[in-house]
Design goal:
Helix content: 25-40%
Number of helices: 6
Number of strands: 9
CATH architecture: 3-Layer(aba) Sandwich
CATH topology: Rossmann fold
Strand order of the largest sheet: 5-8-7-6-9
Low-confidence stretches: none
CATH class: Alpha Beta
Number of domains: 1
Structural class: alpha/beta
Mean pLDDT: 94
Length: about 270
């Protein structure tokens, strides 16, 4: 793992990726933040040594470096998922590269289904805590202690100061920003009615197929981390309709300007 991280990092440094401060992972239908960045360098995933390759058609496959609101950022335009056949170590490998490049803060976005029926599709949810239902841990491999504390503390995986700033920004810009618990499942199938009921019982406000592995690794590496979900559908088990992936993508795209405002205004404060 250390050898692979070194190879990937040196490749990107050779491409001009020079000491970014903030890492950003863009989720489903949330790629337009790229248009706000003064791009200095970029690298396709399939050109970066040891990098996985995004296989989902609505996830791009580039790592982008540039300036956003005067801050150097490195952005994943497209992420990896366990449901694509990757291991949790594959999924989180880019976070380890970001940290080696110099990143101190990780911001994550995703699309999620609203379990809490007080939350409506098209709104945003600030993740305050999570439930890992992906069946394993990205830290469960031999030699992990060479990269950080094996028994990583997860008492506060989402940075309180960043979350408070997100909430203030949302209020100032009239953006509806709920706060809640995100459950991460494997997928790619959507949940059954019984599964939605279970998720509500165990305390989830939203459900998705990403984010938690990356946040675990960010904490393992000592990064400040925060994440925001776009709620793309309402998961009411008593009135469940067949899923329409096109509608989910459209809802993420509709909510994207609010997400961009949150991220841009936050980065100004870093």
């Amino acid at each position: 793992m250390i050898k692979f991280i070194t190879e990937s990092t040196e490749y990107l440094q050779g491409k001009g990726f020079d000491n970014p401060e903030v890492g950003i992972i863009l989720g489903t239908g949330l790629g337009q933040l790229i248009n706000e960045i003064d791009i200095i360098a970029e690298a396709s995933y399939n050109h970066i040594p040891n990098f996985p390759t995004a296989t989902v058609e609505f996830h791009k496959g580039k790592l982008i470096y540039g300036n956003l609101e005067g801050i150097k950022v490195v952005v994943m335009q497209g992420r990896f998922h366990v449901y694509e056949g990757y291991t949790l170590q594959d999924v989180t490998f880019p976070v380890r590269i970001m940290e080696k490049l110099g990143v101190k803060t990780l911001l994550v976005s995703n699309a999620a289904g609203a379990i809490n029926l007080d939350f409506k599709k098209g709104e945003l949810m600030l993740i305050d805590d999570h439930i890992n239902l992906q069946g394993s841990s990205p830290l469960a491999f031999k030699g992990v202690s060479e990269l950080g504390e094996r028994f990583a503390d997860m008492s506060a995986p989402y940075d309180d100061a960043i979350n408070s700033k997100f909430e203030s920004i949302a209020t100032a810009n009239n953006i509806t920003l709920h706060k809640g618990v995100y459950a991460s499942v494997v997928g790619p199938q959507l949940e059954t009615r019984a599964e939605y009921r279970m998720l509500k019982i165990i305390g989830a406000d939203a459900v998705g197929m990403s984010t938690v592995p990356e946040i675990i690794v960010a904490n393992h590496l000592g990064l400040k981390a925060a994440a925001v979900s776009v709620l793309t559908d309402e998961c009411d088990p008593d009135n469940l309709k067949p899923v329409d992936i096109g509608e989910i993508i459209a809802m993420a795209t509709k909510a994207e300007p609010d997400m961009i405002t949150l991220f841009k205004e936050l980065i100004k404060t870093i």
